[in-house]
Amino acid sequence: MEEVEEEVKRIVEQVKELHDSSTSFVSSSSQEELSLRNRASVVDSSIRRLHSTLASDKHLDPKLFEKLEEDLQRAKCMLADGDTSSFLPSKPQGIDSEEGCFTVLKLFEHVLESDPLIDEVGFIHPSQFNLLDEEAGSSSVYQNELQPNNETSRKFWNQDHKLGISTDILVQLCKDAKHVFLLAFEEYKRHGNACNESQIENFSCSPGTPEIEVMRHSQAVLLLSSDFGTAWNARKLILSKKDQLSAFTEELRLSGLILSNSPKSESTWSHRRWIIKMISQRFSTPQVIITKESELVESIGERSKMNYRAWYHRCWLVSYMAIEQVIQELNKSKRWAGLHVADSSCFHYRRRLMLKILESLYVKGGNAYDKSEARKIWKEELDWNKELVERYVGREALWLHRRFLSLNWIIYFACNDSDVSPEPGESIIMNEEIAIFIDNEIHLLESSMTVLDTKFEDFQAQALHAGVYMLWLTKKMPELWRMVEEKLGTEKVKCVLSTIAQERPSLLHHLVNV
User: Fold this and answer.
1) Residues 6+ away with beta carbon under 8 Å from 67
2) How does 294-308 read in b/e, with b if 16+ C-beta sit within 10 Å?
3) What residues pair up with 262 in beta bridges, in sequence order?
4) CA-angle at 46, arms to 41 and 50, nearest 5°
5) Which of 163, 187, 416, 457 has the fewest CB neighbours in a 10 Å radius?
6) Are 105 and 218 in contact (CB under 8 A)?
7) 238-264 confidence digits (pLDDT tens)
8) CB 293 within 8 A of CB 313
9) For 455-477, how does the pLDDT look when each residue is reduced to its tens digit (9 = 90+)?
């Protein structure tokens, strides 16, 4: 118990310093006042935590217990006495929790704790509160209980597990949250250095411990400033010591809530990947988590266009998928891709899934995927892509996807019937199946080169993308150039090159000369 005794002494010293600082406080600086207030709040939490620790220890010497209790009581009285008490915010009317909501930050944290099912958060102008109330059919409970019923004083709106935060308080609330979090994190690190591992585990179960304070304040900070890396790292430090799956699934819930307001936050997506890695290493990866992650990205993709961070996250998930889940994802994402043909991110995701299928073809043992099934999937994707190319004229994402499909069709299916994976850079030997495939691609090129309408640029773009696609194929398979010249004729080939030269001269130079 020596560590607890030392901590009580340290708390008493902190209270004395705080009391001296508040007694000599004459400045009107809001920053100095905020610093004192936050220090008082942290010390107050530490006193309550130590009270709880002492009360739960059944082996403590009665005399020592009495002495430590007396020291803590004296510190608490000093903290509540005189000038120092002005920096301990009083409990507002209408809140029944033990600690109360002392400041706007405390109120914010109380809202989060009182509704653990919040699934969406956003920043709203105060003028929108009444409109939200009308749409919801009732007034926000936090408005009615805590604040006067007028537009300018409203801070939070919480209905149907949706949380709105007034833009009027954002700047100061974020500053307060960061300040209190950093103080709590320093306290946590001091506490960790002073205690052994078993004591830290015991303390972490008590309300008001540094660990709980760090998690509470970091949650508030990240909902307001999602790329505050120190807060994410603090949560990683604490979570890395946990061995309950529920702690990690709850962290996924929190990061999902943050993404509802900051869908392009790189730090948040990175943190989700860290959580999934931890779950995979410690508990194995439940496929239901991967499925939910994939669905989350798709729903965010609907609200946040061209969200490359989200789609990169979805591509990363493929490495954790079994082949059956890969096939399911390929089928599920098809409709979304067909409705968003200009968004290359979804087609990139489909390419990642199809590469996973190719990898599974050459797995040793009895777990290899059936090559005839893979061939069927590839053929269906090529046919579907052709339909989209002809229906949605001038969409470059579709032509880029076709490059991938065509080259891998030739390498893995048209000229490789063995069960051995082709070597990188291996030369492609022309055969009848490849010749038929290229002949069909040349017909597609011819139809795409026809500009039916010059009023819009879509047909010109279609001709350009088709020409670049065919030129790209000839670079990968130089022997195709002769076939293209024979089928199209010299004049049409010159027309293709001229189209590319006008729009993409540097690309033409790269494809022809490199």
Assistant:
1) none
2) bebbbebbeeeeebe
3) none
4) 150
5) 457
6) no
7) 999 999 999 999 999 999 999 999 999
8) yes
9) 778 888 898 999 899 889 888 88
